[in-house]
Write a structure and sequence with these properties.
Largest sheet: 9 strands, mixed
Strand order of the largest sheet: 11-10-9-8-12-6-13-16-15
Number of helices: 11
Distance between the termini: 18 Å
Strand content: 25-35%
Structural class: alpha/beta
Number of strands: 16
Helix content: 25-40%
Shape: elongated
Low-confidence stretches: none
Radius of gyration: 23 Å
Order of helices and strands: EEHEHEHEHHEEHEHEHEHEHEHEEEE
């Protein structure tokens, strides 16, 4: 039920709810996005009077505070529900066990933990956001067999075929934002959108310390673009971008600091991020251990040359024990390529 939402619920969690009475489902609901009814309220509305004496099953502990909508605990108490079973305690400090206490205080049976591994995997993005205050970071790479993303002359179109690129664009629809460095913008002028009718448009985020981004760049046309620069960047270029509807974030230092940037994005409600490159950007994310999951497309071509562009630059590991070893990895075909998927952080769940 939770996954039926037609829109990202972020920065809220994915939540589904089912109400059962006398062994039969009498109500179903899911959260449809920011500002809409929560899953419990949707299910209670469908159940109507049949909710009295029933059991409510829900992905996450019901809310007990006023936000965009009233507390779900109030709706549950008014409905006559007898028992509430929730999978996960809500790490939101406004909830965090308080809802369970309120419901028990009014005589309801309350239990936690049913299907908790499934609920946690469903909400890995939300759980990381609440615990770490940063987005869940996915890295997407497309390389040759020898790990190159371009030839020594800079040619990169195309290492993978159309079907593999379609698969990669589909991954964009699963994330709120796509991040690249300024060198990728200058070299390829990418669109960074899903190019799929009806698919949500992600935010485009560009690391551009000195605001070198050309005014005609494709990412600027999306009207959903954030350019991260340093405080020393030209103020007139900053003003020019802002007049075009670009959100310019300035940070202290000679380079855009990744952790403060991620925290700033999370404060704006962007908690699901896919990083697409280039090599120096990816190297920085791996060096700082900021990657949660990897999608790596490997094309059956060998480019060669020590001058060719590598997928991951940066400092890298001095010892194999310090390298980024994927967990729960899998390999599947994708067009003419293979797609390797794997987890890196404790927040990435299956």
């Amino acid at each position: 039920m939770a996954r039926r939402s037609p829109a990202w619920p972020y920065p809220n969690p994915w939540v589904g709810c089912v109400i059962v009475r006398d062994g039969r489902i009498v109500g179903r609901g899911f959260h449809r996005g920011m500002g809409s009814n929560h899953a419990e309220v949707e299910a209670l509305a469908e159940a109507g009077p049949r909710a009295r004496g029933a059991t409510l099953y829900v992905t996450l502990e019901p809310c007990c505070h006023y936000g965009h909508t009233p507390p779900c605990t109030e709706a549950i108490l008014k409905s006559g529900i007898r028992e509430v079973c929730y999978a996960l305690k809500d790490p939101n400090p406004l909830v965090a066990g308080e809802s369970a206490r309120i419901l028990r205080a009014h005589g309801l049976q309350v239990s936690r933990g049913l299907c908790s591994p499934e609920a946690a995997a469903l909400n890995e993005v939300y759980l990381k956001f609440r615990a770490a205050g940063m987005p869940f970071v996915t890295v997407k790479v497309a390389t040759s067999l020898d790990g190159k993303i371009a030839t020594r002359t800079g040619q990169s179109k195309w290492i993978t075929d159309a079907l593999a690129r379609q698969c990669a664009r589909q991954l964009r629809t699963q994330h709120q934002a796509i991040l690249v460095g300024i060198n990728t913008i200058l070299a390829d002028n990418p669109h960074l959108g899903p190019r799929t009718p009806g698919a949500p448009e992600p935010w485009r985020i560009v690391l551009d310390s000195h605001l070198r981004i050309p005014p005609g760049s494709e990412v600027l046309k999306s009207k959903k673009c954030i350019v991260a620069c340093t405080a020393g960047a030209l103020s007139r270029k900053k003003a020019q971008l802002e007049r075009c509807g670009v959100n310019v974030m300035a940070f202290k230092g000679k380079r855009v600091p990744l952790k403060p940037l991620l925290s700033a994005l999370a404060r704006q409600g962007i908690i699901s991020l896919m990083v697409e490159g280039g090599g120096e950007v990816l190297g920085s994310f791996f060096d700082m251990r900021l990657v949660d999951r990897v999608y790596w497309f490997i094309s059956p071509v060998i480019i060669g040359s020590s001058q060719s562009r590598v997928a991951v630059a940066g400092t890298g590991a001095a010892r194999l024990a310090e390298a980024s070893w994927l967990r729960s990895s899998s390999i599947s075909p994708a067009g003419n390529s293979w797609l390797v998927r794997g987890n890196l952080s404790p927040w990435a769940l299956d």
